[in-house]
Amino acid sequence: MANRPMSRTGIVVWIVFASTVLLGPVVIIGWKIVEALSSVDETTSAPTASPCATGTEAAQRTPINPAAAPYAGVGPHPAAVIGSEPPNLPTEWTAAEDDGRLQLIVCQQLIATGAAEPTTCDYGPAYPLPGSGDSESEPDVAGESEPISLTIVEATYTYEVFEARTARPVTTVTLQGSESSCPGTVGSWASSETVLPKKVSDAELTGALRPVITEPAP
After folding, report:
1. How far apart are alpha carbons 120 and 195 in whole angstroms?
2. SS (H, E, C) 6-60
């Protein structure tokens, strides 16, 4: 019996069938790759925050050093203080943020400013301005700016203490700034509205954190 030529409809059906058989696995593999890439992107873009994050970001606070030693046993429990020009703890109480001996992170936060001091920090028309790199290779140079006076104000700070490896809260202390000093240099950040918060002294922070750093962990 002679073979009958395939109809146009049959040819279309055959092409669709062949495409499904041949391209189906390719489409499935491609879809899996897209899913995998999407999963990686979601993982890498997941919100995180520094160990000293506050406000709405505090919920995403992450450990600063997952490889750090646990906050456990007898003291001292080495700590690192994070903040803007924070006080210094005794050397034997401290460890770098990437040091495996580190146990605690201390986060300094300025939470309030108050009354102005009678003394101001006054700078003349050629007061020092930071070099462009603010380093030894580019020292401070004399500026040609208008005279300016900066006000020193009372200040309140919190020092939140966390376990470095887990970001688990340990304790919080609140301290009043007691030290005032005028910066050796001021730059574009300074204006007639600028205030200088008094700072917490080394001795004050050392005394406040002595129990948590030197005594056995609970």
Report:
1. 9
2. CCHHHHHHHHHHHHHHHHHHHHHHHHHHHHHHHHHHHHHCCCCECCCCCHHHHHH
> CA-to-CA distance for 163 and 4, rounded, in angstroms?
82
- Which residues touch 177 (CB under 8 Å, ≥6 apart)? 154, 155, 156, 157, 197, 198, 199, 200
Residues 65 and 60: their CA atoms lie apart, in Å, by 15
Ordered per-residue pLDDT tens for the chain, 218 residues: 555 555 555 554 555 555 555 555 544 555 555 455 454 444 344 445 566 876 666 666 677 888 999 999 999 999 999 998 899 999 999 999 999 999 999 999 999 999 998 888 888 765 555 444 444 544 444 444 577 888 999 999 999 999 999 989 999 999 999 999 888 877 767 777 889 999 999 999 999 999 999 999 99
User: 76-101 burial, b for 16+ CB within 10 Å, e for fewer?
Assistant: bbbbbbbeeebbebeeebbbeeebee
Cα separation, 72 vs 77, whole angstroms: 8
